[in-house]
Specification:
1 helix; mainly beta; 8-stranded antiparallel beta barrel; globular; Lipocalin
């Protein structure tokens, strides 16, 4: 492989990585639930607008907006809050794992109304 080809490949990889943007930006799929047998599928789309992380839960006809997202960049702990269509309040708090990977994931605790459990979301 020539030096020019090698340099081009290295630059292309760097540009591709740089276009990922904020680590929370993207579509995240996973589930949450109180037990291993009782799980609820969830999709979350998040976007960094330059100041805040915004987004939607379950894009489509049953979607609802994320109310707020807070991030502690020292530990990559994330807190997401929203009000679901059924009027229940959702609080999800977890830690971003495998931060350098495109398919990073978030694991933590989830509360929706009175139901409590754990969750895992993986970036698609």
């Amino acid at each position: 492989m020539s030096r020019r080809t090698l340099l081009f490949c290295a630059l292309a990889a760097g540009v591709a990585f740089a276009q990922q943007g904020h680590p929370l930006t993207g579509t995240w799929s996973g589930d949450w639930g109180p037990t291993a047998g009782e799980r609820h599928q969830v999709t979350v789309v998040m976007n960094w607008d330059g100041k805040n992380v915004t987004g939607l839960f379950n894009p489509g006809p049953d979607s609802f907006p994320i109310g707020s997202v807070s991030v502690d960049p020292a530990t990559w702990t994330v807190r997401i809050e929203a009000d679901a269509k059924d009027k229940s309040h959702i609080t999800a708090e977890g830690k971003v794992q495998d931060l350098g990977s495109y398919h990073r994931y978030i694991t933590g605790t989830w509360q929706q109304g009175n139901a409590k459990g754990d969750f895992k979301l993986t970036r698609d």
